[in-house]
């Protein structure tokens, strides 16, 4: 049976096909994969499919590879240059794996020349041939484990359809898995989707065209609204003579978020996660210069509070998790109705998610109410401490407003994760120093201060067209490596150059460490960060260790009523004007 016969067989049996959906390494397993769980529940309800969905990132074989590779980088890169190990080390791992799976007849000097350049242009340090060979052995082991992992599931489940949800970091493993499956099981229908099409493989970019034209082992690709697109594709409602499908093929119809079934995580070992995941909407009502969310999803849509509450209550009760990670780009549009609804129920539920500094966060009474409603951690895109940079990034906020929001959230006890972009086009050293000054002023009100150097994609970011008009964009790696690197990394010929941006990011992390602020990536670091937070704020939310056990009583958050105003006179807070 070939692929066409497989599709015909599925359609003739009324959609009673077996489907295997996977998320392959490496994607940080902070939460179980909401996209796969949502697809599983939707397809089983509307298509009568037997769907199995798994996350390979929590498997011991792959966490071992991750630890080995990052351990090698930690040993080989000087301390002052590896402050971004757990942020930017993924670039080295991803591109090394991509080169490995695409290597054909390239001589060693070309292949290892690329691996050396990948490491250099991430950590700006030269690795020895011995060090490169050590890392190469880890990649070989990784690929052999991918083969075994995929083979085991395919042999056990005998799927008609093999689908992968792909992120930038998981692209190499995903491409290899598709190739492996098609080589050994040519009758299986292969489908690719995922967030990678919002940036690295943005439609219209050279990377997109390469994946579209040079991956015969991928039968179909869907971008956005995967529930509707995949269902219609399998049901024969989309033309079979195409490889790539978008919202335009369904007349820009969006999934009714108030009618979708609860995500189905039943195949996944939920004990491997600290939280369970849900969402309140799709896209974002704002447009930061470097972001691709609105370009990918289009118009912002949100769910009704009753729908959100019903879902998270069910997830809480089914999986015994008190902390729900909301996977939205932003929670602001639903923050008040969501916390109001949580205050009306008797489930001791907390939620974690992204927040944009706004007018309501300038009032401590609001942040106290959100804390009482279960807001556990506010992940805020502060981005910069420079007024000029904030304007350039289209943040529509001021430094004064940032200070007040962070102080109010922290005083309420909500963990404050402040995220920054370092090296944005046009950022001067003086503006970078303003960012460090802001963090120093707010150090007791910041739970975590995280940063990433500015990342440029060929297209898909809000300011892509503006940057293209002003600056030359060029491939990061020499064109002689194109066949190996496959999916190219692009940079702008603009100040600050990539090396300066990465150097500033290293200084950022070093500065934050000296202030005693943790950027917790491991459980021990989370424990220390939680102890620090509890010592600083009497209203501090429970620690991750406490909440992981799932025994925090409802009275904990409901008792947050009185608070002590902090002295902010030295922070120059004069909020007499709001820019929204």
Can you describe this structure?
The chain is globular, with a radius of gyration of 24 Å. With 580 residues, the protein is α/β, with parallel strands linked by helices. The N and C termini lie far apart (59 Å). Helix 4 (85-102) runs parallel beside helix 7, helix 6 packs across helix 7 and helix 13 (364-372) packs across helix 15. The chain has 22 helices and 16 strands. 44% of the residues lie in helices and 13% in strands. The longest helix is centred in the N-terminal third of the chain and has 29 residues, at 129-157.
Instruction: Write the CATH fold name of the largest domain.
Output: TIM Barrel
Largest sheet composition:
6 strands, parallel
* Total count of helical runs of at least 4 residues: 22
What's the mean pLDDT score? Answer: 90
Low-confidence stretches: 574-580
User: Which architecture of the largest domain does the CATH hierarchy give at level 2?
Assistant: Alpha-Beta Barrel
Strand content: 5-15%
Domain count? 2
Measured distance between first and last alpha carbons: 59 Å
Task: Please render the helix and strand layout as text.
Layout (H helix, E strand, L loop, with lengths): L2 H10 L5 E6 L10 H13 L3 E6 L4 H17 L8 H18 L5 H16 L5 H29 L3 E5 L5 H14 L4 E5 L12 H8 L6 E3 L3 H9 L9 E2 L30 E3 L2 E2 L10 H5 L3 E2 L2 H15 L3 E4 L8 H9 L6 E6 L8 H9 L2 E9 L3 H6 L6 H13 L3 E8 L6 H13 L6 E6 L10 H7 L2 E3 L6 H4 L4 E3 L5 H17 L8 H14 L7 H5 L6 H4 L22
Parallel strand pairs: 1-2, 1-3, 3-4, 4-5, 5-6, 7-10, 10-11, 11-12, 12-13, 13-14
Antiparallel strand pairs: 8-9, 15-16
């Amino acid at each position: 049976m070939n692929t066409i016969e497989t599709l015909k067989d599925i359609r003739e049996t009324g959609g009673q096909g077996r489907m295997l959906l996977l998320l392959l390494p490496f994607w940080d397993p902070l939460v179980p994969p909401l996209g796969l769980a949502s697809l599983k529940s939707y397809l089983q309800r509307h298509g009568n499919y037997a769907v199995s969905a798994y996350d390979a990132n929590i498997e011991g074989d792959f966490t071992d590879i991750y630890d080995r590779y990052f351990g090698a980088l930690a040993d080989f890169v000087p301390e002052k240059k590896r402050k971004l190990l757990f942020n930017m080390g993924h670039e080295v791992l991803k591109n090394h794996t991509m080169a490995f799976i695409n290597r054909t007849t390239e001589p060693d000097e070309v292949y290892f020349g690329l691996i050396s350049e990948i490491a250099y242009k991430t950590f700006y340090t030269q690795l020895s041939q011995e060090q490169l060979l050590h890392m190469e052995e880890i990649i070989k082991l990784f690929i052999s484990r991918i083969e075994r992992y995929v083979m085991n599931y395919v042999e056990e489940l005998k799927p008609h359809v093999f689908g992968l949800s792909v992120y930038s970091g998981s692209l190499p493993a995903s491409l290899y898995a598709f190739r492996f499956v098609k080589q050994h099981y040519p009758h299986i229908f292969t489908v690719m989707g995922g967030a990678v099409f919002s940036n690295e493989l943005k439609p219209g970019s050279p990377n997109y065209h390469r994946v579209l034209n040079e991956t015969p082992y991928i039968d179909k690709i869907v971008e956005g609204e995967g529930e509707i697109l995949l269902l219609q594709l399998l049901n024969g409602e989309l033309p079979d003579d195409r490889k790539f499908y978008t919202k335009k093929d369904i007349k820009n119809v969006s999934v009714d978020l108030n009618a979708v079934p609860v995500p189905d995580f039943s195949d996944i070992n939920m004990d491997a996660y600290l939280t369970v995941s849900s969402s309140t909407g799709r896209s974002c009502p704002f447009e930061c210069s470097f972001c691709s969310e609105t370009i990918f999803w289009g118009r912002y849509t949100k769910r009704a509070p009753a729908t959100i509450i019903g879902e998270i209550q069910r997830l809480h009760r089914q999986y015994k998790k008190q902390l729900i990670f909301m996977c939205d780009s932003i929670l602001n549009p639903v923050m008040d109705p969501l916390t109001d609804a949580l205050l009306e129920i008797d489930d001791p539920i907390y939620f974690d998610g992204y927040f944009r500094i706004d007018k309501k966060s300038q009032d401590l009474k609001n942040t106290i109410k959100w804390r009482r409603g279960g807001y556990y951690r506010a992940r805020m895109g502060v981005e910069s401490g420079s007024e000029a940079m904030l304007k350039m990034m289209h943040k529509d906020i001021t430094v004064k407003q940032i200070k007040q929001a962070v102080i109010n959230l922290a005083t309420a006890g909500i963990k404050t994760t402040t995220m920054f972009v370092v090296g944005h086009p046009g950022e001067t050293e003086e503006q970078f120093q303003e960012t460090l000054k802001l963090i120093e002023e707010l150090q007791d009100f910041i739970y975590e201060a995280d940063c990433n150097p500015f990342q440029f994609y060929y297209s898909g970011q809000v300011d892509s067209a503006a940057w293209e008009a002003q600056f030359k964009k060029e491939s990061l790696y020499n064109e002689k490596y194109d066949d190996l690197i496959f999916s190219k990394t692009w940079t702008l010929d603009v100040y600050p150059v990539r090396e300066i941006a990465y150097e500033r990011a290293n200084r950022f992390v070093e500065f934050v460490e000296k202030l005693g602020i943790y950027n917790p990536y491991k459980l021990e670091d989370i424990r220390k960060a939680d102890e620090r937070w509890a010592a600083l704020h009497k209203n501090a939310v429970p620690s991750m260790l406490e909440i992981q056990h799932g025994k925090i009583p409802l009275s904990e958050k409901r008792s947050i009523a009185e608070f002590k105003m902090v002295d902010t006179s030295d922070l120059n807070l004069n909020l007499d004007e709001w820019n929204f």
